[in-house]
Amino acid sequence: MIERKNEARWLEKYHRWQINVQRNGHRKTFYSKIPGTKGKIEAERQADKWLNTCYEQPNIRFDRLYADFLAEKELHRGLSTSGIKQYTSIGRVHLLPLLANKKAQSITQKDWQLCIDTAYTRSLANGKPISRRMLKNIRATIKVICSYAERQCIPLQSPGPLVFPAMATINQRTVLQPTDIRTVFSHTDYQLTNGDTRLFWYIHLIRFILFTGLRPGEAIGIQPEQDIRGDHLHIQRSINYHGEITQGKNKNARRVLYLSPTLRRIVDDQLGMLQEHNVESPWLFPGKSGDFARQSTVYRIWRQYRDYHGLSASHVYELRHTMATATKHELPEHLLKMILGHSASMDTYGTYVHEYSDDLMIAAEATERAYHKILGLE
């Protein structure tokens, strides 16, 4: 509830009570010509009602509300459009077909549940069952829209618990098996269907992600001259699937990793490959043109390499899960969280590098041990 801080005052010249109030940058004046305390109360009552319950368009329909919501997201989007694209897609496919012409104030819990149920039943009819993760994304979008409506004083009912169909699929992650990892560290090329042999241009990127657990965008965004300082790698940017340079997924994404001997060799091998092919670039793992790599291109070529060598059907992002699985018996949970950027804050281990460098080195050494066992180097 918005608390009014001023009071109505009597204007003798106009013989009326008057009060000015403001909400979200909008100013409005209310009057009462009833003399005495009764008139003062009446003017203030109108102002309080406007502050807490009214909206310039009380009968706004959901399609207009959704358009205004997206406009606000675009205004505050920062460096990335990926979130807006997801909201736009979910609205177009799962919400607007059912709610577009309904008044926001008439939307109920039953309507929100219908959006979830319809998304599932339509996916079954199309032969592509929707995942539980996608249903969670729809639910999250609904809640964000309701939060926007609340800020704008729009009477839109926020959903209570939404039930997911019991048969909704749960996405299963696929990780590389030890034999797959040994293949990645022993083969740098693959063959096309026509028999042509090609160098896997991103082989060192894949090996680097396996050893660090970095998100693909974080690894692609490494600039060695800025980010490698002595024995430490500073993760301070990411390049998302849309080719946008961002500061990372969240505040925990900015972190420091220790460069173990194996990681150093991977970096040296990558720089040597770039030099051999006369590629000059500020990026550690660029495309052949020298510009930053595109995640879609990396995945497409990784899939060709992966399928040719008969590796597990793992997505590039799932190499991060492979790293966590491969090191689980060597790395304590708090160190694994630190490496993956899942810790509450890097300040947990100290504000300065020298205060937590021992932990970083221990984590790097543990990762080395885990992979040496897999690669048979012990």
Notes on the structure:
The chain folds into 3 domains: 9-52, no CATH class; 62-151, DNA polymerase, domain 1 (Orthogonal Bundle); 178-375, hpI Integrase, Chain A, CATH 1.10.443. The strands form 4 sheets. The protein has a 3-stranded antiparallel sheet, covered by helices on one side. Strands 6-7-10 form a 3-stranded antiparallel sheet. It has a two-stranded antiparallel sheet with strand order 4-5. Residues 344-357 have low confidence and may be disordered. The chain has 378 residues and is mainly α. Helix 4 packs antiparallel against helix 5 (132-151). It starts with 8 loop residues before the first strand and ends with a helix. Strand 8 (238-239) and strand 9 (245-246) form a beta hairpin. The protein is built from 14 helices and 10 strands.
What share of the residues does DSSP label as strand, in percent? Answer: 5-15%
- What is the CA-atom radius of gyration, in angstroms? 28 Å
**What does the average pLDDT come to?**
85
Shape: elongated
Q: Taking strands numbered 1, 2, ... along the chain, how are they ordered across the largest sheet?
A: 1-2-3
Number of helices: 14
User: Which CATH architecture of the largest domain?
Assistant: Orthogonal Bundle
Q: What descriptive keywords fit this protein?
A:
about 375 residues; 10 strands; mainly alpha; DNA polymerase, domain 1; about 50% helix; three-stranded antiparallel beta sheet
Which helices and strands occur, and which strands form pairs?
Elements: E1 9-11, E2 16-23, E3 26-32, H1 37-52, H2 62-75, H3 82-99, H4 109-125, H5 132-151, H6 178-184, E4 189-191, E5 197-199, H7 203-212, H8 216-220, H9 224-227, E6 228-229, E7 232-235, E8 238-239, E9 245-246, E10 255-258, H10 261-276, H11 295-308, H12 319-326, H13 333-340, H14 353-375
Antiparallel strand pairs: 1-2, 2-3, 4-5, 6-7, 7-10, 8-9
Helix pairs in contact: 2-3, 3-4, 4-5, 7-10, 7-12
